[in-house]
Design a protein that fits this description.
- The chain has 378 residues and is an alpha/beta fold.
- It contains seven helices and 21 strands.
- The chain has a 13-stranded parallel beta sheet with strand order 1-2-3-5-7-9-12-14-16-18-19-20-21. A four-stranded parallel beta sheet has the order 4-6-8-10.
- α5 links the parallel β18 and β19.
- The radius of gyration is 25 Å and the shape is elongated.
- InterPro entries: F-box-like_dom_sf, F-box_dom, F-box_SCFL_complex_component, LRR_dom_sf.
- This is F-box domain-containing protein.
Length: 378
């Protein structure tokens, strides 16, 4: 019982344990014994929150002291910052610069300021270790503007929420693989244009209300997740494998088609018969899909527009599975809605793939798919 079993653990395991107890408690462990005095300086993952301090100045001093006293020989994998309050705009840039100077691999910065004061964040140095960057702004205001004066050649994952981007920022991340944009916009433009030669996974969710169109040119894109976007979507992604569109029916054009598409999920709020031609046109572009998921709203609309399909052959030559998803949730509609597929619609969807199965997915079986989640988790 007198043995110090915790100190007997390997140092790397102790560092990981300290990463989960909070930085204040981790520093407090330095009084346990001489061995533990500097253990906290090797912690690979650090998390800081301004809510733990009475003023932003005390928070700033604490962060500066912790980052300055880290062991420079220890790899810093991830730093999380949460800044909440009426002040701290200048501090956000300072701690971002400080963290990046420590050769960190991942930075997650959340700024929730109560005042509507614009914040400009700039990445002004080339960081050879930064692979993942997450920036979250206020829920009600997209007041953070992000720029970079150097190429971020090692960055592979970028997650932005309520951020204004300069048009050149994404192109300055040549090896970017994963991009998530939530309530974002391009500076001085009502178009969101994403042209990237290596991007593999893209999630777009509720862009700025003034964004009228989305133009995507991504020759290596495999997974595309679009949620609650209005307007015109022009998509050039010849290697697309998985497609999810949820919320609104877009007017979509694909200059090169989706010849590699295997999975697609369409969940639209369909209120008008005038939407039917757009949905049929979109379905024709998904002709190579193997697993197709459609919400009951779409089936109901197609039932009312059979003249659009009555003389058309089924475009789905490789279909293996057709899944019927529950109605898209509305605040006034919480009941499970079932619909019987008409013979014309069934022939249009399945006549070219007679071996395909039909499955009705109940609401309690569905996963609530969020931005950045698996494109087809159902």
């Amino acid at each position: 019982m007198d043995d110090d079993r915790l100190s007997g653990l390997q140092d790397d395991l102790i560092y990981k344990i300290l990463s989960f107890v909070g930085i204040k408690d981790a520093i407090g462990s330095s009084v346990l014994s001489p061995k533990w005095r500097f253990m906290w300086t090797f912690i690979p993952n650090l998390s800081f929150s301004s809510d733990d301090f009475s003023t932003i100045d005390r928070f700033s001093d604490f962060v500066t002291q912790v980052l300055s006293r880290r062991n420079n020989q220890a790899q810093l994998s991830c730093v999380n910052f949460y800044i909440h309050g009426n002040d701290g705009h200048d501090f956000a840039q300072r701690i971002l610069n400080h963290a990046l100077s420590l050769n960190v691999q991942q930075v997650n910065l959340t700024c929730l300021f109560m005042m509507e004061v614009g914040l400009h964040l700039s990445i002004s140095a080339s960081h050879r270790t930064l692979k993942h960057l997450t920036l979250n702004s206020s829920i009600s205001h997209d007041h953070i503007t992000l720029t970079s004066t150097r190429e971020l050649s090692f960055l592979t994952t970028l997650h932005l929420s309520h951020i204004t981007l300069y048009d050149s920022f994404i192109s300055m991340c040549p090896n970017l693989k994963n991009l998530t944009l939530i309530w974002c916009k391009m500076m001085g433009s009502n178009e969101l244009r994403i042209c990237h030669p290596r991007l593999s996974n893209l999630t777009l969710y509720k862009l700025n209300m003034f964004t009228e169109s989305v133009n995507i040119v991504t020759p290596q894109l495999e997974n595309l997740n679009i949620r609650k976007l209005n307007g015109t979507h022009i998509i050039s992604a010849p290697k697309l494998v998985s497609l999810l569109i949820r919320g609104y029916c877009p007017l979509m054009f694909s200059p090169h088609g989706f010849h590699s598409l295997e999975k697609a999920q369409l969940s639209f709020q369909c209120f008008y018969l005038s939407q039917a031609p757009k949905i049929v046109s979109l379905l024709e572009k998904l002709h190579n899909v193997k697993v197709l998921s459609l919400c009951v709203d779409i089936i109901k609309l197609l039932n009312c527009s059979v003249e659009l399909m009555s003389h058309q052959p089924s475009p789905f030559l490789n279909l293996k599975s057709l899944k019927i998803l529950p109605k898209v949730r509305c605040w006034w509609d919480h009941e499970h809605t079932r619909v019987i597929m008409s013979t014309e619609v069934k022939n249009y969807l399945l006549s070219s793939s007679p071996e395909a199965t039909i499955t009705e997915v109940l609401r309690e079986q569905c996963c609530d798919i969020i931005a950045g989640a698996d494109l087809l988790s159902i």
